Amino acid sequence: MLGKLSAKPLLTRATIAERVEKIAQEIHAFYGCDDFVIVGLMNGVFIFIADLARQFAEPKDIAFLKASSYGKAAQSSGVVELEGLEKIDLHGRRVLLVDDILDTGRTLNKVSQALRDKGAIDVEFCVLLDKVSRHEHNIAARFTGFVIEDLFVVGYGLDYAEKYRNLADVWTVE
User: Fold this and answer.
1) Which helix or strand (DSSP H or E) is residue 111 part of?
2) Is 139 or 77 the better-scoring residue by pLDDT?
3) Domains in the chain, please, with CATH?
4) Would you give the distance in Å from CA 30 to the centre of its chain?
5) SS3 for 48?
6) How far is it, in rounded angstroms, from Cα 31 to Cα 93?
7) Catalytic site residue 103?
8) Cβ proximity of 26 and 102 under 8 Å
9) CA dist., res. 42 & res. 157, Å (int)
10) d(CA 156, CA 10)
11) pLDDT digits (tens, 9 = 90+) for 35-89
12) Which of 51, 103, 130, 159 is catalytic?
């Protein structure tokens, strides 16, 4: 059974849109004119990365990896599975790794090491949501949309058993 959504959204689409625009400005200020590749972790990041990428006037290389540790569960299995890295040439490139949520940090830790192993010279993190209280690794996102409490959230690409990704706002599941 799917959980019941909260009475009101945790983050509205307007609040998210405003923050995404500011994150893009922060990224532009950080990288300046330097070239970098945007790597998104599917599936949850698809709406966030689309909105973020449209904020850049200059062309950007965008690639996607499939990283999963949840499956259809509400809690991570602790094992991060990674697909698609073999399709990306990162040798000598700077990488902006974009994810929907930074929870324990296991996923970003594993993926960032895999990107470096593939030749990336620099990997920075951009996340929509950060559950700082749940971090298990010494890891921090350079660009963060919102710091949230340890809540189970859906919408704006985030799912529960592959449902709710299509919601425009971010909701908590009770």
Assistant:
1) helix 106-117
2) 139
3) 13-27+35-71+79-172 (3.40.50.2020)
4) 18
5) helix
6) 12
7) yes
8) no
9) 9
10) 11
11) 899 999 999 999 999 999 999 988 899 999 998 765 555 555 567 788 988 889 9
12) 103
